[in-house]
Specification:
heterodimer; A: mainly alpha; ABC transporter involved in vitamin B12 uptake, BtuC; two-stranded antiparallel sheet; 6 strands; B: two-stranded antiparallel sheet; 4 strands
């Protein structure tokens, strides 16, 4: 317990140091130092790390709880810096998408190269419902998820017939079709101009788009969304975690490894595939909905092919089918590039290089997926269902 | 619609279709022989166009004048070379290390390679972010035959593709090496046991397919007069779509598939009102329908394992 607390606090401290250092040289030195420290630790104190990992895995609930507690204090620790708060908001939205995509692609093995389309659908759902129909954000947000799920099922239908490369082609095509439709259905979506002035949500009578005053310090509106994103991210992680560790998640794994064998064990592949698409898409839709309300402006080019690639590179870096991997991948690939804004142009190339290097040298990612350990408790729960 | 317009559109469709066909042939070769879908194949298309654009300076410095036939041949050779080299590098550094990995990994790594190539061109070619005007290689105006306006570039592209495709046919069907390729495509292990150097077959296949893709890029520059760093993406997707429609692994199917997509695109654009804004959607819709109803392609004889 104390070990978990201490290591998480250490991580928090390192993160704060990273946020506060400004000089690019210092940032590079910091990252290099961290990498070297990580490698030496793994070599010299491998046993210690393994033990720590075991503690983490066994007390996953406590780990999450402490992490959430720490995350709650971040806006204060960075003194309400609106720039960094916004980056963290994007990071959390990306993490939600990475978790959703990871469920589809990592767990169920259904490759999806058009994931940005789900985010677009969620964003436009919230945008259109709040802007044109005047519906409250809180009612529109679930709709964003549900619509994305619906489209996930629609995408899943051809996916029932095809797999592998063909599925990749279908999903790319799907992403492009959604984007083209957003561009061309001008009366509903605003075409190239997109939707402007999407209203900010109100929470307990407070407009979330305004500055908050805590008495001793005031923070820009990003802090409101920070807590909203955090709450949703925690929810997403818990839901995905529960799904992944259920018999349903196991069935998806079986389907990924061998569809024929899975079918022989009596799994209804049609249902499982469609469900995997629906669940994975849902969180993309939610992330899109929050994005629309936070930025107040959406346009089709925000949800292009490159966004899908960025999310893919996150789950590859973190490790396919690994939930902590998706979170860590989203964290690294959102936060690190911000320190190198001078090299903004190289950003997409950086994502490409990450994909290639990870697949060549570190195929399992930073935090590889751990095969589940059979526990009688899980089995008992499965039988009840 | 007048008869002249119809002939005109048929020519356009032929030019477009043959370009898709050249890209699709690469996809189908890679899939048939190496069992890899190369998502970086669209980039070789873009590279071909850019090499043609940038090599002008070199060719004029060795004394070839622009607009002459040797000049064009020089560009063609350079483009073919670039394509082959790109293919060989891809084989060595991307495809070969991934042998034995799950399909999804190979697919993603070629995707990564395509992003790197695309971004590298955008960043390192001077003013690469903006569309580049592609020079007219021949100073000939469009010819007007009975009201049909024929661009010499279109005719050149069609002839060039016909030559290249016949060349490919010759290599695959008539030469010893083509027999190696066919043998490897049929059964890799049996081919190895017969003493065929499968590694070499892989390298040459990638070089061959990529060279054809690069020429398609050159043709795109010639016919449309403008090229951009991200044009490889759409071209790659459409080429892949054409290959799938024709049945992946079937070279002649790929050519037919490319033609089909080209004709359908031009048909929709010229007949449906406001069709041009949906031009890109047509291929995608066709390929999705094709995958749902005829997963082995319209000419597919072999039913590939898909589910």
């Amino acid at each position: 317990m104390i070990k978990i607390l201490l290591t998480e606090l250490l991580g928090y401290l390192l993160f704060l140091v990273f946020v506060y250092i400004e000089e690019p040289i210092l940032v590079v030195a910091f990252i290099a130092a961290m990498a070297i420290a990580g490698i030496t630790l793994k070599k010299r104190a491998g046993l210690l790390l393994q033990e720590l990992e075991k503690t983490y895995v066994e007390n996953i609930g406590k780990v999450g709880l402490i992490a959430v507690m720490i995350a709650l204090t971040i806006p204060f620790a960075i003194m309400g810096d609106s720039y960094w708060l916004q980056i963290l908001n994007f990071m959390m939205l990306n993490a939600m998408m990475a978790l959703g995509l990871n469920f589809m692609t990592g767990r169920a093995g259904l490759i999806c190269l058009g994931y940005a389309a789900f985010m677009a659908i969620g964003a436009y759902t919230v945008g259109i419902l709040t802007l044109k129909a005047g519906i409250s954000f809180w009612i529109a947000l679930p709709f964003a998820g549900v619509f994305a799920s619906l489209f996930g099922v629609i995408l899943g239908l051809p996916a029932l017939r095809v797999k592998g490369h063909y599925l990749a082609l279908v999903t790319i095509a799907f992403g492009l079709i959604v984007q083209e439709l957003l561009l061309n259905l001008e009366s509903v979506t605003g075409g190239t101009n997109g939707l402007i002035d999407i209203p900010s949500p109100h929470f307990l009578g407070i407009d979330m788009g305004t500055t908050v005053n805590f008495g001793f310090m005031s923070m820009t509106y990003q802090a409101n969304f920070y807590y909203l994103c955090l709450a949703l991210l925690v929810l997403t992680t818990v839901v995905i975690y529960r799904f992944s560790n259920s018999l349903f998640g196991l069935a998806l794994n079986a389907m990924r490894e061998d569809q024929l064998a899975a079918q022989c064990y009596g799994l209804n592949l049609t249902n499982y595939k469609l469900l995997a698409f629906a669940i994975g898409a849902f969180f993309g839709g939610i992330a899109g909905g929050v994005y629309a309300a936070m930025i107040n402006f959406i346009a089709p080019e925000n949800f292009g092919y490159s966004l899908s690639i960025i999310v893919i590179s996150m789950i590859i870096l973190g490790g396919l089918d690994s939930i902590p991997g998706a979170l860590v991948g989203a964290f690294f690939l959102t936060v690190f590039p911000e320190k190198f804004r001078a090299f903004e142009d190289y950003r997409v190339m950086f994502y490409g290089i990450i994909i290639v290097l990870c697949l060549l040298f570190m195929r399992e990612g930073l935090l590889p997926f751990k095969h589940r350990i059979f526990k009688p408790k899980t089995a008992a729960r499965g039988e009840e269902n | 619609m007048t008869i002249e317009l119809i002939v005109q559109q048929i020519l356009n469709a032929l030019g477009l279709g043959i370009m898709y066909a050249l890209i699709a042939v690469g996809f189908t070769l890679f899939f048939g022989v190496i069992e890899v879908v190369n998502f970086a194949h669209g980039e070789v298309f873009m590279l071909g166009a850019f090499v043609a654009l940038l090599s002008g300076g070199i060719l004029t410095s060795i004394g070839l004048t622009m607009g002459s036939v040797p000049y064009f041949l020089g560009i063609l050779v350079l483009v073919l070379l670039t394509g082959s080299i790109f293919g060989i590098l891809l084989e060595r550094f991307i495809v070969r290390p991934m042998r034995g990995a799950p399909d999804i990994m190979t697919l993603l790594i070629t995707l990564g390679a395509s992003i790197i190539t695309r971004e590298a061109v955008m960043l390192f070619v001077p003013n690469g972010r903006n569309p580049q005007p592609f020079p007219k290689l021949f100073d000939v105006d469009s010819i007007n035959i009975g009201g049909v306006l024929i661009k010499p570039e279109t005719i050149l592209c069609i002839i060039l593709s016909a030559v290249l495709i016949s060349g490919l046919y010759y290599i695959i069907e008539k030469t010893t090496f083509g027999r190696y390729i066919r043998a490897t495509a049929q059964d890799r292990e049996a081919a190895m046991m017969m003493g065929i150097n499968v590694k070499k077959v892989f390298i040459i296949t990638l070089a061959l397919g990529s060279a054809l893709g690069a020429v398609a890029g050159l043709m795109n520059g010639l016919s449309y007069g403008i090229i951009k760093f991200n044009m490889g993406f759409a071209a790659g997707i459409k080429g892949f779509a054409a290959a799938v429609v024709g049945g992946l692994g079937n070279v002649y199917g790929a050519i037919a598939g490319g033609m089909l997509l080209g004709f359908l695109e031009i048909f929709v654009v010229s007949t449906v009102p406001d069709g041009s804004s949906y031009q890109d959607l047509i291929s995608f819709v066709i390929v999705i329908l094709c995958l749902v109803f005829r997963p082995a392609g319209i000419f597919g004889e072999r039913a590939y394992e898909k589910v």
